[in-house]
Amino acid sequence: MIYLDHAATTALDKEIFETMKPYFSEKYGNPSSIYFLGQEAKAAIEEARERVAKILGASPGEIIFTSCATESNNLAIRGIINYQLAISKKPVHIITSSIEHKSVLETCKGLEEKGAEATYLSVDKEGFVNIEDLKKAIKENTVLVSIMYANNEVGSIQPIKEIGAYLKDLNKRRKQPVAFHTDAVQGFQYAETDVQSLGVDALSLTGHKFYAPKGVGILYLKEGIKVESQQTGGSQENKKRAGTENVPYIVAIAEAMATASSKRQVAGGQIRKLRDKLIDGILEKIPGTILTGPAKENFANRLPNNASFCFPKVEGESILINLDFEGIAASSGSACTSGSLEPSHVLIAMGYDHTIAHGSIRFTLGKDNTEEEIDEVLEKLPPIIEKLQKMSPLR
Amino acid sequence: MALYNDIVMDHFKTPRNVGEIPDADGVGEVGNPICGDIMKIFIKVEKKDGKEYISDIKFQTLGCGAAVATSSMVTEIVKGKTLEEAEKVTNITVADALQGLPPVKLHCSNLAADALIKAIEDYRSRK
User: Fold this and answer.
1) How high is the ipTM of this complex?
2) pLDDT tens across A282-308, in order?
3) Is domain A264-391 in CATH 3.30.200.210, yes or no?
4) How far apart are CA A169 and CA A379, in angstroms?
5) Which of A37, A38, A241, B99 has its CA at 20 to 30 Å from residue A327's CA atom?
6) Which 271-330 residues of chain A touch chain B by CB within 8 A?
């Protein structure tokens, strides 16, 4: 099989799997227990916390292990806003973008119903937030800005550093500081993710996008940023996330982050080469194809593993099933594949209409893809598009 | 495991009666404004023993796997049938003939019978 859906999930790396194995049936203690077995597990998660903190340029007390990025995003956004709503008598204001992951968008929408105000920044045709729009959107009661590091569908890398620097400067003059959260799920592997240099107060990650297992995430939360815990119980994770720690998965995510961050430059370069070949090949072989996301001259701000397209007069799910017949896995933002029967909110926010978004396909490469696989996609995809266009009533 | 059953996949992989009939006696088109699927059905009508029947039928579809499979199936069901028989075909008939569709697809992609009825209406309005 040719797997080109790494933005959806990745395979657990075999070496990482080995590091987590002892924590299932041998070192299975509860980190809250005082005897050796428990303290052994406790030491493992604290070592993992230190490793993660070092990679992110944070201190260990600022790292919260969660179950996934959806939970991290909820804890950051809901946690900060609920805390502020409780102490403030007036509605508090969130600024986010219109191309965020659903776990951010739906959380903000839910908070609007609870008395918060929200601004959803628009993006340009290539999927970039404009920092000037953000500056204009900030109000006296703004308490949180949440902008994703890189978009999962079209790979646009947002100006996080610029936003971080701007807010840091602005906060010196404000009575009500604005906290800055970024969902860095797609960015971590390929872009520098040092919280000091990015200037963020909160940052979400999930392990399964970089070869750790599904079911473990991280929230970096800067010391002093107050959140309302989203689940009550024991005093784990600095009282911010109750529940027995998922020891093997925490060990795995730390290991995976160490591997990913040490190989960032090399992996990014190899993947970029294959990705460029895929993009050039598809644009050349399939007339009328639209490359969605950052254009060639802005590829420095495009995730090196992302190749996303819209094919006119065809529908995404039909393309995906045909690719699946050929053993190729990809994804689509077509309404037919969404479950909600709505087309990709990202492509719509970028200004594409329903009919164009209908034929969207995203390929996301990973560390094990080869040039032969890209050649095979370039051989198999054009006849699929041609066959479907022939079947279409649109001419 | 697959999203669709084998019958649906068979019709998707090798759809029956794809194409257009340039001198069709009736043409019906339906679109789903929400998702953007479009289905178009062309029919040729002939008379035999005083009854009008569908002597040829073709379709063109832009849509998902279910949209293609339902279009293909409806053409197979009514080809050679009298207009009276064809008019009785509903979207439910088509879904049943395919031995079921995923629940989420039942309404959105199952419009082929509507396109057929429109093609028959078009034929009648031309007389």
Assistant:
1) 0.94
2) 999 999 999 999 999 999 999 999 999
3) no
4) 52
5) B99
6) 313-318, 321, 325
